[in-house]
C-alpha cells in the first residue's frame, strides 16, 4: 500500500523516443529494478515466471499479437474513410453527413484509453487487452450488418471506445517483458503501427470496396479482428509480475483478471482514477495537450474529408485512385517519425552538457513550419484546381509536422513523468482524439462558406498562434520552477 500511494515510487513504465535518452536513463532504472527484487535479485534474474526470462518465441508471438491489435486501433477506426460516398448513396444521405459516422468513435478513443489505465493496474494486462478486443470485433460486425446511418454510427462509436486499449496497454507490456536496453527498439516498432494505421486502413478498405461494396469491406475488417483476437487468446499472456512471486498463475484465470495482481482492487482503482485526473490538469501536460489537440485537428480533418474533394471536379478520382492517395499520408507519417526521432536526438546531443527536459520542446518549431506550409499547399492546390501532386505534397508536409510534433511533445512529457508513462500516454491520446472528433463537424460547412484557400490559410495561422501560445508558457513555467528550486537550495 505504501508503494502504491506514492507516485514517485511506483513501478515505472518509461518511454524514451530516442535511443540516446533511453541509454541515459537505463542505469537509474536498472538500479530501481534491483531494489524491487530486494534480497531475491539473483533468484529473480533466473525466475522463469518473470516475463523478461520467457523464451524468445513466446515474446515474439505475444509482441506480434500486440502489433496486430495496435494497427487496428486507429486503422480500423478510420477504415470507412474511403467508403463514405458509397454509404451516403446507400442510406440516401449527404456525403458530408455520411463522413461524420467516424467522429464519435474518434472522440471515444481518447476516453477509452483513460478508462483503461486504472483497470490495467488493478486487474493486469491480459484481460484488459483481450475482452475489449472481443467486444470491438462484435462492434465491427454490428456495423457491417447495419441498415441505416444511426445504427452504423452507434456501433462505430463503441468500436472506438473499446478498440483504443492497445494504444495504452502496449507500454506496460513492453516494460514488463523487455529490459531497459530493449525498450527503445520495441517501443519504436510498436509505435510505428499508430503512424501508418490511420492511412493504411482506409487504403485497404477502399481497394476491397472498389471490387465489391462497403459491407464486404467491413466484413473483411471483422475477419481481421477475428484473427487478431485469436492471436491474443492463443499467444497472449499476463505480463504483470510481482518480484519474488514463485507461484505459477493459472492461464485460464489470467484471462479474467483473477490473481494477475495481488493489489486490493477497489483501492487500486480509486488511486489510479484519481492519479489520471490529477495529471490531466498538471500545467505542462495541460498546455502541451492543448498543443496536441490543435496540431492533430487539421490533419485528422484532411484524413476524414479528403475523399469528398477527390471524388468531385476537377479531380473525379475513382475509389482506387482515392484510396491510393492515402499512401501520401503513410509517407508523411513515416517521414515525420524519422524527422522527430533524429531531430530529437540532435537536440539532446547539442545540449547534453546542460540538459533540461523542456529542451525537447524545441523539436516542434521545424515540424510546425512544415505543417503550416503543407496546409497552405494542400488548400491552395485544391482551391485553384491544380494537379493532384500538390495535394499529395501538401499532405506529406502536414503529416511530417503532425508526427514530428507529437514525437517532441511525447519525449518531453514522458521524460518529465517517467514513473507515470502509461497514464501520460493515455492523456496525450485523449487530447489527440478530441481534436480529431471536433473537426469533422465544422470543417465541411466552413469550407463551403469560405472556400478551401481561405479556410486552410486560417488553419495555418491558428496552428502557429496556438502552438506558440501553449508551448512558450511551458518554457517560462519550467524556468520559474528551476529558479525557485535554485533559491531553495541556496537557502538550505
Explain what the structure shows:
The chain is mostly helical. The chain folds into two domains: 53-191 and 198-238 and 250-281, Up-down Bundle (Growth Hormone, Chain: A), CATH 1.20.1250; 282-491, Growth Hormone, Chain: A. The chain has 20 helices and no strands. It has helices spanning 19-37, 41-46, 56-75, 84-91, 95-99, 103-123, 125-144, 149-163, 166-177, 183-211, 214-235, 251-254, 265-280, 283-310, 319-324, 326-351, 365-383, 388-416, 421-450, 452-491. α6 (103-123) packs parallel to α8 and α10 (183-211) runs antiparallel to α11 (214-235). Mean pLDDT is 86; it is low at 1-39.
Short descriptors:
single chain; 492 residues; mainly alpha; Growth Hormone, Chain: A; 20 helices; disordered N terminus; MFS_dom; transmembrane transporter activity; transmembrane
Q: How would you name the CATH homologous superfamily of the largest domain?
A: MFS general substrate transporter like domains
Biggest sheet features: none
Low-pLDDT residue spans: 1-39
**Share in helix:** over 70%
- Tally of individual domains: 2
Query: Strand pairing plus helix content: what structural class?
Result: mainly alpha
- Architecture per CATH nomenclature, i.e. the level-2 architecture of the largest domain: Up-down Bundle
CATH topology name of the largest domain, in short, is: Growth Hormone, Chain: A
Net shape: globular
The strand count comes to 0
Radius of gyration: 23 Å
Number of helices: 20
Q: Regarding quaternary structure, how should these chains be classified?
A: single chain
CATH top level assignment of the largest domain: Mainly Alpha
Order of helices and strands: HHHHHHHHHHHHHHHHHHHH
Amino acid at each position: 500500500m505504501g508503494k502504491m500511494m506514492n507516485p514517485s515510487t511506483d513501478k515505472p513504465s518509461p518511454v524514451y523516443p530516442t535511443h540516446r535518452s533511453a541509454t541515459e536513463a537505463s542505469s537509474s532504472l536498472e538500479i530501481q529494478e534491483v531494489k524491487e527484487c530486494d534480497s531475491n535479485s539473483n533468484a529473480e534474474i533466473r525466475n522463469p515466471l518473470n516475463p523478461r526470462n520467457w523464451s524468445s518465441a513466446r515474446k515474439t508471438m505475444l509482441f506480434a499479437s500486440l502489433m496486430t491489435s495496435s494497427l487496428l486501433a486507429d486503422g480500423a477506426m478510420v477504415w470507412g474513410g474511403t467508403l463514405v460516398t458509397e454509404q451516403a448513396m446507400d442510406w440516401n444521405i449527404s456525403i458530408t453527413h455520411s463522413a461524420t459516422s467516424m467522429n464519435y468513435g474518434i472522440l471515444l478513443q481518447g476516453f477509452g484509453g483513460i478508462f483503461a489505465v486504472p483497470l490495467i493496474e488493478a486487474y493486469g494486462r491480459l484481460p484488459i487487452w483481450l475482452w475489449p478486443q472481443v467486444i470491438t470485433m462484435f462492434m465491427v460486425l454490428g456495423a457491417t450488418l447495419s441498415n441505416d446511418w444511426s445504427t452504423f454510427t452507434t456501433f462505430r462509436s463503441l468500436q472506438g471506445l473499446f478498440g483504443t486499449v492497445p494504444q495504452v496497454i502496449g507500454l506496460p507490456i513492453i516494460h514488463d517483458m523487455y529490459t531497459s536496453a530493449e525498450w527503445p527498439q520495441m517501443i519504436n516498432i510498436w509505435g510505428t503501427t499508430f503512424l501508418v494505421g490511420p492511412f493504411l486502413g482506409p487504403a485497404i478498405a477502399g481497394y476491397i470496396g472498389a471490387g465489391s461494396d462497403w459491407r464486404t469491406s467491413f466484413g473483411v475488417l471483422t475477419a481481421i479482428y477475428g484473427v487478431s483476437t485469436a492471436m491474443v487468446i492463443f499467444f497472449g499472456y499476463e505480463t504483470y509480475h510481482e518480484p519474488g512471486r514463485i507461484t505459477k498463475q493459472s492461464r485460464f484465470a489470467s484471462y479474467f483478471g483473477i490473481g494477475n495482481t495481488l493489489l486490493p482492487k477497489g483501492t487500486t482503482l480509486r488511486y489510479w482514477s484519481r492519479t489520471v485526473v490529477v495529471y490531466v490538469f498538471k500545467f505542462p501536460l495541460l498546455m502541451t495537450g492543448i498543443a496536441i489537440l490543435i496540431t492533430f485537428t487539421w490533419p485528422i480533418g484532411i484524413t476524414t474529408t479528403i475523399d469528398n474533394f477527390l471524388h468531385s471536379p476537377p479531380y473525379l478520382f475513382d475509389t482506387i485512385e482515392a484510396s491510393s492517395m492515402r499512401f501520401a499520408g503513410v509517407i508523411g507519417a513515416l517521414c515525420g517519425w524519422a524527422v522527430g526521432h533524429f531531430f530529437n536526438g540532435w537536440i539532446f546531443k547539442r545540449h547534453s552538457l546542460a540538459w533540461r527536459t523542456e529542451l525537447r520542446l524545441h523539436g516542434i518549431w521545424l515540424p510546425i513550419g512544415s505543417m503550416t506550409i503543407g496546409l497552405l499547399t494542400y488548400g491552395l492546390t485544391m482551391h485553384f484546381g491544380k494537379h493532384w501532386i500538390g495535394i499529395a505534397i501538401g499532405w506529406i508536409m502536414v503529416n511530417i509536422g503532425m508526427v514530428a510534433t507529437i514525437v517532441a511533445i511525447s519525449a518531453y512529457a514522458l521524460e518529465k513523468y517517467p514513473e507515470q508513462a502509461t497514464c501520460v500516454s493515455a492523456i496525450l491520446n485523449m487530447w489527440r482524439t478530441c481534436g480529431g472528433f471536433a473537426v469533422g463537424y465544422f470543417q465541411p460547412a466552413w469550407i463551403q462558406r469560405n472556400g478551401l484557400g481561405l479556410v486552410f490559410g486560417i488553419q495555418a495561422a491558428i496552428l502557429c498562434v496556438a502552438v506558440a501560445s501553449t508551448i512558450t508558457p511551458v518554457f517560462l513555467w519550467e524556468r520559474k520552477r528551476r529558479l525557485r528550486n535554485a533559491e531553495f537550495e541556496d537557502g538550505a
